[in-house]
Amino acid sequence: MILNLTGLLGLLFLFLPSVALGEGAVIWWETGMVKLRAENGGPAGDPVPKNADLCQGDKCLKGGVRIAAAQNEFEPFQIFIAAPAGAGLKNVDVTLSDLADEKGSRRISSNLPGDMMVYRQYYVQIDKPTTPEAKKGAWPDALIPKVDEYVGERRWYPKENRPAFPFDVPPGRKQGIWIDVYVRPDTPPGLYAGSATVTVDEKREAVIPIQLTVRPFRLPSTSSLRNAYAVGITELGRGHDWDAPGSSKSGFISDDRTNELVCLYTKALLVHRLSNETAVWPPPRWDKSRGKMKWIFPEGQTSCQEKYPEFLNGINSLPGGKLKGARLTSIRLRDGYGFNNLERYDPSKLIPDYYTEYAAYFKQNDWLDRLFDYTRDEPRFTFQRSTKRRECWRLEESAERPDTDWDKIRRRSLFLHEHAPGLKVLVTTDRPSAERCFERLFNDKEAKKYIDLWVVGIKRMHGKPDSDTFNKNLRPVYDDAFIGPGQELWWYHACGSHGCGDEPEKGWPTVMIDFPAIHTRVFEWLTYAYRISGELYYETVFQYPASYKMAKGSEAKMPDRNPFDDVYYFGGNGDGILFYPGRPDQVGGKKHIPIESIRLKLTREGYEDYEYLKLVEAKKGRPWVETEILPLLRENEKTPLTVYQWNRQPERLLEAREKLAAALQ
After folding, report:
1. Fewest C-beta atoms under 10 Å: which of 176, 186, 307, 510?
2. Of residues 48, 29, 27, 45, the one with CA closest to residue 37
């Protein structure tokens, strides 16, 4: 425990006379907008916050937890338990009561798993910060449930070989507990009260009052903001089944097993208001003998049975029955080809009827408007020193004109537009790059006709003034004359937000672990501000084990990486990973589950903020939102709100959210 808070703790004595300086646990609560490293001080830690609502006995300095949520919304809060420097804490537990209305007739149940979920934060040791803005230390990220809501099993804390609760807190460290509260859509508005009890070695240390205000409006189950978050099929197998008997090198066992994992992760994303773009499994196959498509739906009995048709139609079987009717907002065409398979871009190798039937099946089921072909990722348009300009391929790789990324886009786009009408062609690129390369390579000034989903990197949507080509706000170039009927403008952030391990970047939103929470949650506010209709994130399980080696002196396989130990990739801590593999040998139980991260929760919070923005826009108009709400996120009165200039104080975002809620009441 950090003891330089004498004034604050002295004030505590006025309310809680049993507290003794330098002894026992220090307990307080925070909103979901705080991330605190495990150490209680020093350059690799965070002290007890000076404004903390410290709790002991049955009181808290500031009254305890105060949260609010709409109907059909999640709202998190955190409880922290810090041990003094001289002694650790043993057998610490956190339990919740129901939250009851003022008459006691309506309740939000505390039964686990259920509407209130309790997680113990797992700390990832960061020794190499992502950028100079980030910090070293043990950062919280993976969330280990007390009882999981996928199969209802009690889970263990990685490396402790025992249940996650109760737990010990080492001397001079803290343990964070993340609590999610879900308000069902039929919950009457009003005030609900309950408590959280913290015990140490079976002795009650604090009963923290909880007050939840249920607001008189409802959020939709399906996100109003289209999105596509990938869950790599190979990564799933390697992360969960790399050592399973009979598994292949990629961890593949069977279509039934892969579908079970895809189902679990699709549910995990949907319950966080996100869409698994890779939900089609296995890819439909062409029956040569019959000249017809063969749609394959595994029928084996597994812990998760739903397939992509159910997720597209709307599902009522998300964990705990939450977000009833939630459905995917987008889904990727899966035809068995990867980006690097050249046949994918050769119309003579493709079967036209396969794609025609693909699109027809999705149209018949009213899904076609959500189907896209991820045609190419970040086609080359890079600066070349020899020509002192950006080029459409790397000249050092080929002096003569090669078969460029843009050639591949053009061929596949023409083929799909002809044979699969209505299927959207998605490319992660931008208008300046596409127009210059299509004109240089093909003398074609109509690049827009080849791409239906323009997914632009945030640094190319609005670059900083010291950038070369993308040095201003380019959002205006994607006007209605360019983004025509049937086309959409999305964006994404990637390793460029932190520099990809090269020259570090600063100021951009990011999902890296070693950044404050607002760096993740603010992104959907910026999406709204820039009038973007969708978001893409390239991978949520990318850092699951990628390859294997043989243990020395043994024939046993070993993974090359364990995300619970290290998540550094592409120059960032947490790039491409929002889940952790919930293997029984890591987190106990008998069944595999996805382990969610704090950053996934923060992304969900951003999507719920977006719903507030859209509801208020429908009621009061977008100009009101732009003049009354968005300025609250500006760095200062003189600096405009941009994707790299926004207020880092979480209180400002929460203030804006409260003002939105007031407008809806």
Report:
1. 186
2. 45
From first CA to last CA, the distance across the chain in angstroms is 42
Cα R_g (the chain), whole angstroms: 26
Contact 228, 536 (CB under 8 A): yes
CB atoms within 10 A of CB 56: 23
Residue 245: pLDDT band with limits 50, 70, 90: confident
Taking residue 309's Cβ as centre, other Cβ atoms within 10 Å add up to 14
pLDDT digits (tens, 9 = 90+) for 204-231: 999 999 999 999 999 999 999 999 999 9
| Residue bearing tokens 């991260």 | 597
Which two three-digit tokens encode residue 439?
Answer: 């004109």
Structure tokens at 299: 């029928």
Cα–Cα distance between 78 and 98 in angstroms, integer? 17
pLDDT of amino acid 468: 78
pLDDT tens by residue, 328-385:
999 999 999 999 999 999 999 999 999 999 999 999 999 999 999 999 999 999 888 8
| Residues 124, 166: Cα–Cα separation, whole Å | 20
Distance, in Å, from the CA atom of 319 to the CA atom of 303, rounded to the nearest integer, reads: 12
| C-alpha 157: how far from chain center | 22
Residue found under tokens 């597994």: 302
Beta strands per DSSP E along 44-173? 53-56, 59-60, 65-71, 73-82, 89-96, 99-101, 107-108, 116-126, 137-145, 167-169
C-alpha to C-alpha distance for 185 and 361, rounded to whole angstroms: 33
Enumerate the β-bridge partners of residue 211: 66, 193
Q: Are 41 and 189 a contacting pair, CB within 8 Å? A: no
Which residue shows structure tokens 């190319």?
460
Using CA atoms, how far apart are residues 414 and 402, in angstroms rounded to an integer?
Answer: 20
Q: Is the dihedral of CA 50, 52, 53, 55 positive or negative?
A: negative
Q: What is the pLDDT of residues 91-106, one digit of tens each?
A: 999 999 999 999 999 9
CA distances for 635 relative to 374, 638, 642, 650, angstroms: 36, 8, 9, 12
Contact of 263 with 307, CB cutoff 8 Å? yes
Distance CA 122, CA 158 (A): 8
Contact 112, 146 (CB under 8 A): yes
pTM of the model: 0.95
